[in-house]
Amino acid sequence: MPYKVETFIKNVATTVGEGPHWDPETQTLLYVDLQAGNLHRYNTLTKIDEMRHYDVPTTLIVPRKSGGYVIGDGLNLSHLDWESGVRTVLASVDQGTRNRFNDGKCDASGRLWAGTMGYMEKPVFPEMEVASLYTLEKDLKVNRHLEKITISNGLAWTHNNTKMFYVDTMPREIWSFDFDLETGNMTNKQVLVKYPKDTIKTLGYPDGMTSDVDDKIWCAFYDGSCIIRYDPETGQEISRINFPTSQITSCCWGGKNFDELYVTSGHVNITDDQAGSVFRVTDLGTKGRPADVFLG
């Protein structure tokens, strides 16, 4: 695969760059610097990277059809008015714990999927099996779909919305489910990919995820310096993209034709030249679909 990797925004994340989301209406790339509490909005037309800072981990940012954004801030899912910077809490979960939200994105019906993770005193040793995967429905009700999660991470669906894919980072597995878009029900859990313990040093930990128009899934690897494309029917690796830094966290499709893969990375206790950068990958021979937004 004759792909091209370029540094799109160098060293922008001071902690963990995460949660990329391409907004086609404004040609902007949304992403977070998670532990720094920074939300970014990079306009690819003006080359201006706007930022909002809060004194809490900011873990996801997704456009809201009615205006503004939904963000993950600590254990809250909140509405953000970008211009004023005002946050309004929509829902809170896992009260009385040291958990926080982690990755999240919307499905094709416009509900937001967002999971939590256990408190992590140092990488990569979180409290185990204390977190959950939730949805924020369009009526703003919260439903819990999975329990005993450790680090809720990547989410992806097939184009016909009959299969859903999900990463819990610490078991080092990618799971597949039969999916009902109307109800949001996940059934028939299968382990699609399981990584042997002896690959931790070379591959690290599965993290954020996306899918392409061919219904293949792409998974980023924290401490693995790569993104791997998988066949979702067999779990077999199809191809791999290598990066010049190790903490690859997530990816999304963007650009005018959705044929550019935008990739975030971390900057935690590493000093290499590209740590915390956002990368753009082109010439991949496929493309993605527009990311869904929150309709609540």
TrEMBL record:
Domain of life of the native organism: Eukaryota
Note accompanying the cofactor annotation: Binds 1 divalent metal cation per subunit.
EC number: 3.1.1.17
Top-level EC class as recorded in UniProt: hydrolase
Active site, UniProt feature: D207
Residue positions binding substrate: R100, N102
Binding site for a divalent metal cation: E18, N153, D207
Catalytic reactions of this protein: D-glucono-1,5-lactone + H2O = D-gluconate + H(+)
GO CC term, one of those recorded: cytoplasm
Localization terms from the record: Cytoplasm
Protein's GO biological process: L-ascorbic acid biosynthetic process
Annotated ranges, domain SMP-30/Gluconolactonase/LRE-like region: 16-266
Molecular function GO terms recorded: calcium ion binding; gluconolactonase activity
UniProt protein name: Regucalcin
Organism (species): Patella caerulea (Rayed Mediterranean limpet)
Lineage: Eukaryota, Metazoa, Spiralia, Lophotrochozoa, Mollusca
